[in-house]
Design a protein that fits this description.
alpha+beta, Ribosomal Protein L22, Chain A, three-stranded antiparallel sheet, two-stranded antiparallel ribbon, metal-binding
């Protein structure tokens, strides 16, 4: 049974400006494992990675029905990738199946999360 669906879109120019200021935002948003992957990238790919992970967390919180805040924090949701590059999301808040999709276009990233019991 579907518990919730969340969608988010993000203009990647916002992330470019944030990255130019240093790593504090990335460290706040990304889990340690995500931050480790983030550091492996540079340039445009780093912007896409951080933007995608931020957007995934937003999509999850919308699917959960609360938004980011007291009920769900950035550290409660982690999106890594399997050996094929497919995003795999886990959460400390939800024990069911989590389906996630991340799509990048030159200027935008869009994510969708579906929670299934």
């Amino acid at each position: 049974m579907i518990k919730g669906i969340g969608v988010d879109i993000l203009d990647l120019s916002r992330i470019e400006k944030i990255i130019a200021k240093g790593d504090s935002f990335a460290k706040k948003v990304l889990t340690p494992a995500e931050f480790s992957q983030y550091q492996e990238y540079s340039g445009r790919r780093q912007v896409e990675y951080l933007g995608g992970r931020f957007s995934c967390k937003e999509s999850f919180s919308k699917a959960w029905g609360t938004g980011i805040g007291k009920a769900v924090s950035f550290q409660d949701v982690e999106t890594l990738q399997n050996s094929l590059g497919q995003p795999i999301m886990t959460s400390t808040k939800f024990s069911g199946k989590i389906w996630v999709s991340i799509s990048h276009e030159k200027r935008y990233v869009i994510t969708q999360v579906l929670l299934e019991d």
